[in-house]
Design goal:
heterodimer; A: about 400 residues; mainly alpha; two-stranded antiparallel sheet; 17 helices; about 75% helix; about 0% strand; globular; B: about 290 residues; ABC transporter involved in vitamin B12 uptake, BtuC; two-stranded antiparallel ribbon
Chain lengths: ~400, ~290
């Protein structure tokens, strides 16, 4: 992937041929996302039952988590294998603070600040230690495992922070919900949580879009493309990476706080490798170097795993879809594994994308759209005219 | 406590520490071969261990002698799987370390899913052979001593192969300078495929040897992957001296920490110590010391 095609998704500056230049693409994208978001916000509660709305809410919350890695990895170029560490810290920070305080303003803020502070500490340790990206992956992976092991073993009654018992592998049940700031008696119900989640998701999305066209965003992309050259131009790559990593930690913490609200429950599996793998899969499927890609990837993968988990696809039902011969072959290849086996599916998806579609779905689709738009006769003429002059 | 008893206690603790070091070296050496020679970070390493364990147990259930199942069948099966993986996945990704990591992680999830589908999400075990032996008032398992001995023999064998055979010469040459090796008529792809297969076979052997101690279940790899990685990366590029020095260091830390806290916090403290070590010595122990060793 060369620098130009990567940047194309961001500013489209290289494609100034026809009427559809970079700015128009940007505006079209922003308007589309805004309209779809607003339509979802208004329309979904009208057409969906509460249980389905609850399913959608968790997709939105996880999409915020996907955006946090989209920033850190897709734009910052730091592959963090432990984004779930910050997600889990946010959830645990919210739960523990909530049991001790009872009013959700401070727990909500803590759930953002604590993971951010942890990310800053870890980031300082890694970036200022000039640890290269592969080792960085191993360190973040190890940190996640440390948290998982440590929290998992806190089952005894002696592990208590104030009023909150950590509960070890059983997790913390019945976490009190968020309330409107300053009003401890007006807790958010599930409808409210949907609105809060979608508004926060859109705020994060547009906030990141704004950040990425700002000076800061240009610099972190420059550092991703060539750290040494950015350094020669006078930018301290370590500082910018640290800032990006910290912001990613804060966003993951925000998602964790909402997630703890959504299920009113948090357990150590939130730190697990499976969770970390999922976040990476969302981003790689959706596409590195875009923001909408990971959101789409997250929702698609979550929907897929939920669908496969619930549909109870058996060999018989599979046979109706793909025919008995293929179903026979599939089930013998998969060792009679049932298709709700998400590990198998996620692993296959990750392998397929790394090998076959390493750029992800959205960049490829955007390129296709650009290609189709540019091939319109008027644009081709304009191209020709421009080249002639 | 009489003098004789305290001597016994020291002896038992020494065996425990030695066993912790040996098992770390054992589970890491396959990864070290693959990482040291090919600069490939194989996140499916834990699943290779898991497959080794299953191969040994399944072979044993079908009437193969346990020792043959562990020492012959498991490495052969996992080595063959390794060669297939190298030919179908890894070779497309040389030089793209991050993509290799991601692809092998996908492979890891895929294998966990596949094995869960075949064997179910339960623990299968074989009882450790050879029983126990008494040291004063304490008892220790003879099998643990055998694992220590096999690990030592394995490390010596790897040294001899790398140092004194043509295969070892080819491997070291390709590792140092693939282009020069190719110019001298070697085929680096072939060397890589064989190396990956040997690394996988070592992982399979290790997985089979630890199976009687821990049992085998589909997600067992996760329990080992972090330990194996910190040992290899903490050790640095030199395959043997790196693995041995890091395994000795982390094994000692783990046992001492476990002795004073709990086994879980023993692991947690070891991992934290490893992160500090990587921060201080980003090139690993052999990046700073023992540079000219294998």
């Amino acid at each position: 992937m060369n620098a130009r095609s990567r940047n194309g998704a961001l500013n489209g500056g290289a494609l100034n041929g026809g009427t559809w230049n970079g700015r128009a693409w940007n505006i079209a994208g922003l308007v589309t996302v805004g309209v779809v978001g607003l339509a979802a916000m208004i329309g979904l509660p009208l057409v969906l039952e509460l249980s389905s709305l609850l399913d959608v809410t968790v997709y939105l919350i996880l999409a915020i988590l996907a955006l946090s890695l989209a920033l850190v990895w897709g734009y910052g170029g730091t592959l963090c294998f432990g984004q779930s560490a910050f997600f889990g810290l946010g959830a645990y920070a919210y739960a523990i603070a909530m049991f001790n305080i009872g009013e959700s303003t401070i727990p909500f803020l803590l759930a953002i600040v604590l993971p951010a502070a942890f990310a800053a500490l870890l980031g300082y340790f890694m970036f200022y230690g000039r640890i290269s990206d592969v080792y960085l992956g191993v360190i973040t992976l190890t940190v996640t495992l440390i948290l998982f092991n440590a929290v998992n073993s806190t089952a005894g009654p002696e592990y208590q922070i104030g009023e909150a018992r950590l509960g070890g592998f059983n997790g913390i049940p019945s976490i009190p919900p968020l309330n409107w700031p300053g009003m401890p008696d007006s807790a958010l119900d599930l409808n409210d949580l949907f609105y809060v989640s979608i508004v926060l998701l859109m705020a994060v999305y547009f906030g990141l879009r704004w950040l990425l066209v700002s000076r800061f965003g240009r610099v972190i992309v420059a550092i991703r493309e060539n750290e040494q050259r950015a350094g020669f131009l006078g930018y301290d790559a370590r500082l910018y990476k640290l800032a990006t990593f910290t912001l990613g930690g804060a966003l993951a913490g925000l998602a964790g706080c909402l997630f703890a609200n959504w299920g009113a429950f948090v357990s150590p599996t939130i730190f697990g490798l499976g969770q970390s793998a999922q976040i990476i899969i969302w981003v790689i499927v959706g596409g590195r170097g875009t923001l909408i890609g990971p959101v789409v990837g997250c929702i698609a993968i979550q929907w897929l795993t939920a669908f496969l988990g619930s549909a109870q696809l058996t060999k018989a039902s599979l046979a109706q879809v793909v025919g008995p011969t293929v179903a026979d072959a599939l089930s013998s290849v998969m060792g009679f594994a049932d298709l709700s086996n998400t590990s198998l599916i996620l692993g296959a998806v990750l392998l397929a994308f790394v090998l076959l579609v390493p750029r992800g779905v959205m960049p490829s689709l955007l390129d296709l759209a650009r290609f189709l738009v540019r091939r319109r006769p008027a644009d081709a003429l304009a191209d020709k005219a421009e080249r002639a002059t | 406590m009489s003098e004789g008893e305290s001597v016994d206690l020291v002896l038992v603790l020494a065996i425990q520490v030695l066993f912790a070091m040996a098992s770390l070296a054992l589970i890491s050496v396959g990864l070290a071969v693959i990482f040291g020679m090919m600069r490939v970070i194989n996140l499916a390493h834990g699943e290779f261990l898991m497959l080794g364990g299953y191969s040994a147990i399944v072979a044993n259930q079908h009437g193969v002698n346990l020792w043959i199942a562990m020492l012959v069948v498991a490495p052969l099966v996992v080595g063959a799987i390794g060669v297939v993986v190298e030919r179908t996945l890894i070779r497309f990704l040389y030089g793209r370390m991050i993509d290799t990591m991601l692809a092998t992680w996908g492979l890891s999830l895929f294998l966990i899913g596949l094995v869960t589908g075949i064997f179910g999400n339960t623990t299968v075990g074989i009882s450790a052979p050879l029983g126990g032996m008494a040291i004063g008032n304490y008892r220790t398992s003879i099998y643990g001593l055998v694992v220590i001995a096999i690990t030592a023999a394995l490390l010596v064998a790897i040294y001899l192969v790398l140092r004194y055979t043509r295969l070892g010469l080819f491997a070291r040459g390709t590792m140092q300078n693939p282009n020069m090796a190719a110019a001298l008529g070697l085929s680096p792809p072939k060397v890589y495929a064989v190396t990956f297969g040997i690394g996988a076979a070592l992982s399979g052997l290790a997985g089979a040897l630890i199976a009687p101690i821990s049992g085998v279940f589909p997600t067992i790899g996760i329990a080992y992957i972090a330990k194996a990685f910190i040992t290899v990366i903490g050790g640095g590029a030199a395959i043997l001296s790196g693995t041995i020095s890091a395994a000795a260091l982390f094994g000692a830390i783990q046992e001492v920490a476990t002795y004073f806290t709990t086994p879980v916090f023993g692991v947690v403290i070891t991992l934290a110590a490893a992160i500090v070590l990587i921060r201080l010595l980003p090139q690993g122990i052999t990046g700073r010391f023992l540079k000219r060793w294998l």
